[in-house]
Specification:
Length: about 425
Amino acid sequence: MFTALSEQLTGVLNRLRGRGVLSESDVTDALREIRRHLLEADVSFEVTRGFVERVRERAVGALQVKSVSPGQQVVKLVHDEIATLLGGTKAGLEFASVGPTVVLLVGLQGSGKTTTAAKLARRLKLEQKAPALVAADIYRPAAAEQLQQLGKQIDVPVFAGDGKGEKDVPALVKAALRQAESARARTVIVDTAGRLQIDAEMMDELKALKAAVPPKEVLLVADGMTGQDAVKIARGFHEGIGLTGVILTKLDGDARGGAALSIHGVTGVPIKYIGVGEKTEALEPFDPGRMAGRILGQGDVVALVEKATATIDAEAAKRLEQKVKSKKGMDLQDFLVALKQMQNMGPLKQVLGLLPGINAKALAGVSMDDKRLKHVEAIVLSMTPAERADPSLLNGNRKLRIAKGAGRPVQEVNRLLEQFQQMRKMGKFLKRM
């Protein structure tokens, strides 16, 4: 995410970091570059101007401190100010003390509300918040059916009212809430119809819905790829019905970053979650400080650990560790288990981007095709259990059979076996160490 912006800001700050002495003119030149890059990333002009002025004021004082290198001080200032732009502190959902917590999802059509509703329900289920989903989009064909399918995938109940007053959205949602309460749901996520913030009739419907079922949270689901349009949309919805937070979607793509860096500064509303993929598990809590670190190429080890904890099977990992430490070492079946664990963490580029020191420029120069992992998996699955346990059995005829079964050339089978042998040797070397 923010690939271009991250690469540009990292380049500017690396030049400052390498200098032992900085003058005011050096800082001014660097800030001029940063200002240009922020504007190119579609960050609002007012937000950019305020950001540059705050960094300039603080940097002038920082240059007088001799105990820390001036370059490092300016880098720290830029990091802190980007975190401030993004909201300063992490803001989670607020929950009602009595009765179910109602979360209203609003936004434009096509911004990903229905999928985001399922992602949020899945996360709340893992947090023991007993979620339920309400299908309140009566305009888009098959919207309720889509939400029901997603609800089945994550094993969360979906309610669509009691069949009365289907054209009356507030009445439909109130009926669905009664059903959810009967099912002992503690959190109810309402997926509303997409609408433009300038559509007075549709906005009035949202106001009526908000009055009928007072929600604890009103979250705007905004497409992170839309840049300044997302800021205009957020401002319109906030002025129309009053938002408590934002969920930015599609940040796994080549988002320029303008929406994320502008929304809080323009509306004062915090970003609470970000969508980083299409799967139901691809929703992350938004942390301004950690996101600032990602943008500046400093990584996000906490997010990496959270991702590993949520996706890696601890028992399987423990068995694999014992196998590696054993006299025989790991075999191809163990290799397949490790491969699947790695795939569960998400795209390789996304995972590596969380490591400190791996900036956008470094990632751009590395060839990482996630399809390659699927090819490796197909090759290993085309082997018999005996062949996976003892790769020395693999002669020319067996390799040819495996290649045909996986739909890959024999050269790839040979390359995989060579890499696997190197891994085994490395494992033995580390064990001796």
